[in-house]
Amino acid sequence: MKILLTGNRGLICQAVEKKLVGNGHQVVGFDLVDGHDIRDQAAVIKAGKGYEAVVHLAALLGNDEIESAEEITRTNLLGTWNVLESARINGCRKVVFMSSVDALGIFKGEGVPDYFPIDDDLPCKPTTPYAISKKLAEEMCCSFSSTNDIPTICLRPPGVWNEQTYFHIVENRRQRPEYEWDPYWEYGAFIDVRDLADIVVRCLETEFNGYGCYLVASDDITTSGRTTAELARMVFPQVKWKTQADYEREPYRSLLDCHRAKETFGWKPQFSWKKFLDAHGYGS
Fold this sequence. Notes:
Elements: E1 2-6, H1 11-22, E2 26-30, H2 41-47, E3 53-56, H3 69-90, E4 94-98, E5 115-116, H4 129-148, E6 152-156, E7 160-161, H5 163-175, E8 191-192, H6 193-205, E9 211-215, H7 228-235, E10 240-241, H8 245-249, H9 259-265, H10 273-279
Parallel strand pairs: 1-2, 1-3, 3-4, 4-6, 5-10, 6-9, 7-8
């Protein structure tokens, strides 16, 4: 399959490209570092000519200190629109869009979930420019697929980690234990970049019709020792649980319920916090 990969210079895309090439696919990148602007519709349409699928990751990441709300929303929404237009004009077979758990409006201290565990049905209440741009881009993809008969798959990962990130987390918690939940707790959620690359490839290689939006995360939480339920009760004692039985059997189970992504694409994360700790002698 010939695939256009936007934002290909980034951490995630490098892992995705490596996985795609390893599976025998042909990949061409489109990144601002190389002078390719996702906001330039003509350039995006030209780049997509002859390609069977698009994996769209190019975006501003919501750094309010250096990016204005206008820049974030304009780049992320216009960029997604341009990718979808390119897919339509060029007759692509599929679009995979990298959204974010931020679309839920409960990460980075933005809000409180309606219930635990967090699943694909949780109502979205984004308030920041970045989170809103991701949610609106998802809706754009949904409308696009309903009118153009081109499948779109949106993925909502939490923090994406490479090997250095694991060590960074361990060191920061060693220096300041409350770093785990202060200034805000991210529900212990993360995904290894290699697992994220795997689900992207599975999205492209699996027969799929219509529109879908899926949470994707590791199977366990990152924790300094407290169980998932203990941390949840400590940080969000007011949040009710839909079910706690799974967390009694698996005390460190992820608070992100990704069963739909797993069932739809035959995917299972291979990397976990526990595996990292065991492999590097930190203990379980």
